[in-house]
Known about the structure:
Number of helices: 10
Shape: elongated
CATH architecture of the domain at 320-534: 2-Layer Sandwich
Largest sheet: 6 strands, mixed
CATH class of the domain at 320-534: Alpha Beta
Number of strands: 27
Strand order of the largest sheet: 18-27-26-25-21-24
CATH topology of the domain at 320-534: Chloramphenicol Acetyltransferase
Amino acid sequence: MAEVITMPRLSDTMEEGTVATWLKKVGDKVEEGDILAEIETDKATMEFESFYEGTLLHIGIAEGETANVDALLAIIGEEGEDISGLLSGDMPTKETNDVSEATEAKDEAPAATADASSSELPEGVEIITMPRLSDTMEEGTVATWLKNVGDSVEEGDILAEIETDKATMEFESFYTGTLLKIGIQEGETAKVDALLAIIGPAGTDVSGITASAKPTAQSPAAPKEEKKAPAPETPKAIPAKVEAPKATVQTSSGRIFASPLAKKLAEEKGINLATVQGSGENGRIVKRDIENYTPSAAASVSAYVPVGEESWEEVNNSQMRKTIAKRLGESKFTAPHYYLTVEFDMDTAIASRKAINSDPDVKISFNDMIVKACAMALRKHPRVNSTWADKTTQIAKHIHIGVAVAVEDGLVVPVLKFADQMTFSQIGASVKELAGKARNRKLTPDEMQGSTFTVSNLGMFGIKEFTSIINQPNSAILSVGAIIQKPVVKNGAIAIGNTMTVTLACDHRTVDGATGAAFLQTLRNYIENPVTMFV
């Protein structure tokens, strides 16, 4: 009997899917496990596998077309079988039975769930959930699995690379055993606390274990209480098996295979995978191939676009981009911003930096001097080093300066802890190290948390003056412009001077105008007379 295949729900937020490529055509023989098509969801492009054997009798969604979940995708049956009834909407009786059976099963589900939740996990079995790897993380994407089901795992082994809203981080195992189950495939996104994996003794049956089961222990990165992971909905007519893209060589059909992380990096860098030579197993394109890719002259030529033609390119928003949009929107429309702009005389600062850098073992930047000056000014104006907490204003007695760093996907803010206690050289070394980690997406959660004030410097890009959105839960952020030469009045005469414009954005709930102005006066004294920072 013919089997109806519908557009599956391949992620918890998927409402529609696009058929990127059909790997079978009408009339082709299909074996169980054959890849029918590649389907693009809201989060990834995945291979869609057949659970049935037979002949592909009908394709309901052509390549490039988009359809809602549960729309008719294809029909598989015996060669020559009459499927006119299915195409007209008359589904087999079996489906009705399946639906009623499913309804009955759903009615009985509470009792079964209660039994399952009350039972303990098999001895030695550990449930691993999607960890919260940053303070703002709400969901994560598995970029790469470094272990396969059946592999032995030692405590400290890296299980997977997980993309958060701020970085792609290595996630290591806190347990020793065998990887028995993978709950979130490569390229898939799931909420924090969703079932990520199960580790335990080899051969243990974990088929009946879900995220609702209570683990005997949890990794420190994940909360103790398990929540059931959003599971893909299977179509009414069939259960569909979905796997993340497999890494194989390019085939004669023109399909290109690469690891999900390599695909993501190539998309971000605008690299055509067809021009990349894979160095992985069987010619697989892996992360290092994208990082080391050098385009040929032919590959560098942009496609010709006729004059007058309008076109758009849609780029999927990364977890980082979505979180930036959410957090900055919340900050801008929640905290009442106001801005104070001043211009500093930088002649003495330039001379002081030159004198300090005359020592061959020392190299400091103007940004290092600004961060140090901000930290010392905050010590004198603690109201600027505060957080609004609705019923109270929390004034931090410690000074942690966040330094905004531009990365390929957006912006991250690594934090210098106890910056007021650091020297110029220590600040410079720390900023350089953290900025390098940020650009390589290797910052740890601890290195991005806890700031009490933020500095954003676009002067290095030639920006004279700008304003920033406050980095919540801070009360203020300093925007630093470029040092420029211009005519200034000194001692009653016009001369060429060096100036720098800075703008302080303040949250009016915690920092009044006079408080912000006093902070900038102190900051001016430190910047225009750097020797005072050594007193």
